[in-house]
């Protein structure tokens, strides 16, 4: 039999199995047992609650609901495993206990069907905590066939496209997203306890600023205007600082029209917070404490393992300027570089590509990306970024070529970005205008002049510290996930033909 004939045979067999399921549903409906007419089911316990509290629940009556994951029919009695949000639990189903008609129905149920069960908790002869079923109700009929349990769902493309099936078949995937929720909850608890106020700002914006990224463009029909999806939360949150809300934060989706990789998804979740009357040193302390609190309260330890490497969050995070880090990890000394020409000559010497428009500070940033970033495994703050790459950060007093900005790196990845925020509206206008020049030279990620934001700054903005933390990368770290798609329930995928 050829491969094509074999595939056609499998498709025919599958079609027949799917038809059997639909026929069973039709039979149930004809008998007045349409599962899709059942509106609710009272659940008293979940699987792991029962297993973890057997001493108090032994012989107690419980009701659970979940999906049939396996069945063993043995004449007048059967065993089945049901999966709920917490895991699986075994059912012992006897004809003499649930009744002949119910048992006949139960034997027709398929893997994947959702049932409600009432019964008593007990242990089998093999000491497995189980439920002796006294009543079983079909709550939803599965008309598709789940992947074969032994091999699970391993095709990554199908896993990402059919996350609902992935969650059913792979318990570790479900655990990842449960942990993600706990991480975000812990972040909120930590910030709320420090007096921060959670707010919401616009997603559709006239001017997509606050970061170096290419925005998505869309059209607002009601106003007949083009608008962008936000690339950052920064500029609206700063307006709130100007308005007198001294500590604000937002956890929300942002959108950047960039490529897909293990670290990048065009829409992702960002935490940004701003605090009046502090600087980037205050943000370093806040950031360090936040990472420790989340690790301790979600994982139970500040020492974690990521892809086989131990990461110690309990020790003080190392602090290096960008120039210091470049010298430490590559031997390249940028401290003596005074001009753009000298910087470009240094890049040429080290075979690093740059563009004609790049200035001295841009070259330092390019050298850092090339030689340093992937070596920063343990938590490290990289301080004092060039002014050319930091249009919203305050210049360092006495050293205006650099800014009071840091990025946090862990496992060779940027985890946070923070500034002593620029609050001088005249300087900010000059920075925006310099960005406009870069945009005119073809830099699609450069910012534009934002007159509305400049007007807000002219009202008066207090000294402020601000930070942005990528939630998805944080979750990757705390769930030992190598790819960003593994921590996004529905990652961006190319449409199937």
TrEMBL record:
A molecular function (GO) term: lysine-tRNA ligase activity
Domain annotation Aminoacyl-transfer RNA synthetases class-II family profile: ranges: 180-491
Manganese recorded as keyword: no
Cellular compartment(s): Cytoplasm
EC top class, as a word: ligase
Pfam families named among the record's database cross-references: tRNA-synt_2 (PF00152), tRNA_anti-codon (PF01336)
Annotated residues for binding of Mg(2+) 2: 414
Family to which this protein belongs: Belongs to the class-II aminoacyl-tRNA synthetase family.
Name of the molecule in the record: Lysine--tRNA ligase
Encoding gene (name): lysS
């Amino acid at each position: 039999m050829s491969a094509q004939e074999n595939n056609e045979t499998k498709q025919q067999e599958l079609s027949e199995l799917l038809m059997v399921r639909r026929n069973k549903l039709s039979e149930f409906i004809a008998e007045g047992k349409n599962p899709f007419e059942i509106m609710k089911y009272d659940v008293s316990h979940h699987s792991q609650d029962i297993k973890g509290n057997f001493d108090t629940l032994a012989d107690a009556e419980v009701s659970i609901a979940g999906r049939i994951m396996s069945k063993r029919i043995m004449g007048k009695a059967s065993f089945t495993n049901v999966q709920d949000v917490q895991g699986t639990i075994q059912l012992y189903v006897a004809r003499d206990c649930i009744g002949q008609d119910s048992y006949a129905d139960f034997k027709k149920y398929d893997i994947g069907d959702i049932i409600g069960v009432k019964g008593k908790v007990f242990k089998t002869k093999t000491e497995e905590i189980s439920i002796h079923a006294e009543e079983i109700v079909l709550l939803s009929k599965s008309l598709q066939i789940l992947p074969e349990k032994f091999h699970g769902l391993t095709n990554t493309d199908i896993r990402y496209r059919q996350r609902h099936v992935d969650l059913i078949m792979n318990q570790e995937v479900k655990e990842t997203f449960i942990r993600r929720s706990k991480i975000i909850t812990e972040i909120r608890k930590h910030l709320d306890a420090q007096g921060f106020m959670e707010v919401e700002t616009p997603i559709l914006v006239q001017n997509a600023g606050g970061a170096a990224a290419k925005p998505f463009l869309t059209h607002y029909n009601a106003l007949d205007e083009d608008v962008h999806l936000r690339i950052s939360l920064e500029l609206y949150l700063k307006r709130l600082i100007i308005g007198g809300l001294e500590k604000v934060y937002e956890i929300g989706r942002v959108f950047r029209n960039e490529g897909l990789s293990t670290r990048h998804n065009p829409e992702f979740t960002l935490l940004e917070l701003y605090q009046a009357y502090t600087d980037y040193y205050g943000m370093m302390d806040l950031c360090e404490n936040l990472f420790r609190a989340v690790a301790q309260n979600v994982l139970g330890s500040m020492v974690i393992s990521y892809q086989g490497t131990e990461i110690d969050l309990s020790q003080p995070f190392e602090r290096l300027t960008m120039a210091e880090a470049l010298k430490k990890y590559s031997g390249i000394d940028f401290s003596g570089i005074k001009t753009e020409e000298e910087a470009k000559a240094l890049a040429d010497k080290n075979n690093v590509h740059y563009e004609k428009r790049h200035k001295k500070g841009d070259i330092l940033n390019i050298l850092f990306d090339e030689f340093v970033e992937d070596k920063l495994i343990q938590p490290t703050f990289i301080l004092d970024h060039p002014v050319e790459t930091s249009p919203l950060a305050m210049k360092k007093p006495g050293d205006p070529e650099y800014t009071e900005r840091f990025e946090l790196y862990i496992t060779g990845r940027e985890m946070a970005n923070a500034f002593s925020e620029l609050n001088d509206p005249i300087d900010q206008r000059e920075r925006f205008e310099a960005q406009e020049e870069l945009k005119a030279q073809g830099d699609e990620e450069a910012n534009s002049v934002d007159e509305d934001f400049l007007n807000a700054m002219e009202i008066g903005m207090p000294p402020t510290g601000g930070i942005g933390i990528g939630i998805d990368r944080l979750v990757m770290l705390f769930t030992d996930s190598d790819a960003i798609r593994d921590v996004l329930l529905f990652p961006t995928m190319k449409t199937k033909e």
